[in-house]
Amino acid sequence: MNHLVNLGVAGFRMDACEFLFAFWEHIKPEDLRIIFGSVKPLSSENGFPQGSRHFFFQQVIEVDVEAIKRQENIVLGTITKFSYSIQLGQLLTACLSMMDNVQEIV
C-alpha cells in the first residue's frame, strides 16, 4: 500500500472484509487496524496537504451468519453495505414502474 501511496493513491477499498475474518479465524479487526495504521501519510509531492491520511472503505455484505458484523469494522474506515445497491435497485424499479403508469393515464 505504501508503494501505491507513493504513486498518489489516496484511498483503498477492502472487499468483503468479513470473509477475511470468517475464513482465517486468527485474523481480527484489530489486525486490519495495524495494517491500515502502517500505511504512511499521503505525500505533499502528490498535492496532498502535509500529514494527510488515506481513506479506507470496506464493503460488507452483512448476513446473519457472518462472524464479524458491520459495527466491528466501522472503526477501521467507512463501510459500504452490500445490500444498499439491492435496496436502491428496488426503489428505482418501483419509481420507473410508477412513471410508466403516469404515461398510461396521460
From TrEMBL:
It comes from the Eukaryota. The keyword Signal applies. InterPro entries: GH. Keywords: Signal. Gene3D superfamilies: Glycosidases. This is Uncharacterized protein. It comes from Polypedilum vanderplanki.
